[in-house]
Amino acid sequence: MEWYIPITILPGVGLLVLSTSNFLISLNDEIKVLNIDKEKYQSIVAEKIRQLKKLTFALIAQYLSAFSFVVSGILGEILKMDEMMINLVFTGVIFLAISIILLIHYSIRTLNIRQKHFKL
């Protein structure tokens, strides 16, 4: 595997990081607004806080993925450690897959939470 291949994946990971960060900021703002009327929205706020935790874990997995891709590219070029590079790329893909699974679960749960919220 060429050393630059894992580096070329970084813009896509960066786009996911940006998107997830925007979700996180937006969700945090929603929680602040709903927290004003705690009694009415208590269950919704609790579910949104769980969603915030899920987004945070997804973001951590994306950061680990990006780190793994960068290190694999560096090791592949400077140290010519092909086996280690392949293992790090595989690790990065696993972290990215975990992140995407968390984001899918977040999206599905968000629909249910919004439906509950609009019924109140």
Index terms:
120 residues, mainly alpha, 92% helix, elongated
Task: Characterise this structure.
This protein has about 120 residues and is mainly alpha-helical. The chain has 3 helices and no strands. The chain is elongated. The chain starts with a helix and ends with a helix.
Task: Indicate the mean pLDDT.
Answer: 93
- Strand content range: under 5%
Rg for CA atoms:
18 Å
Regarding quaternary structure, how should these chains be classified? single chain
Tell me the total number of β-strands: 0
Give the % helix. over 70%
Category from helices, strands and their pairing: mainly alpha
Count the DSSP helices: 3
Q: Report the sheet with the most strands, covering strand number, pairing sense and barrel closure.
A: none
Distance between the termini: 55 Å
Q: Which overall shape is indicated by the principal axes computed on the Cα atoms?
A: elongated
Order of helices and strands: HHH
Low-confidence stretches: none
What's the quick description here?
With 120 residues, the protein is mainly α. It has three helices and no strands.
Write the topology of this structure:
Elements: H1 5-34, H2 38-79, H3 82-119
Helix pairs in contact: 1-2, 2-3
